[in-house]
Amino acid sequence: MILSLNDRPALILIDIQKGFEDIRYWGGHRNNPDAEKSASLLLNLWRQESFPVFHIQHCSANPDSLLAEGKPGNDFQNCVLPIEGEAVIKKNVNSAFIGTDLKKRLDNLGIRKIVIAGLTTDHCISTSARMAGNFGFDTYVVYDATATFDKTGFNGELFSAEILHDTAIASLSGEFATIIKTGELVF
What we know:
two-stranded antiparallel sheet; 8 strands
């Protein structure tokens, strides 16, 4: 058993927003096409157990971004829409902790274990998980409830979403976070 009812872990859903549904805009290919479905399963479980949920919303400072406030892409995807009582925290950088009160909220609730899911693995998931680990949280990243997109490197080389995802996960594993799959979250 990874987590128990006594742990009261917080679920942190990062940037599961409509703008990320435009795969072509973000690189043309994406891994883990069912990541949002897995995140939705986690959200339903957290709601059933009345565990704390935090929805992180990226509000890009770039007015042309799909994730800019006021644009349809800034909205949460329908499968993870917040309900009354669930925290929505807006950010404009890669970390869910920088420029937000997320750490303070977690500390005020006495939460020491957090479970992270969302988009994108090599950006906001990785940055947030690294900070969470450095803050001393017992951090879990859900492998199949996170995803990323193809990216072109500085030298023009194309890196697949799968490679970027697995490399980001490998960098987090054991040092900043414990990597799990949705099916492993047994209470």
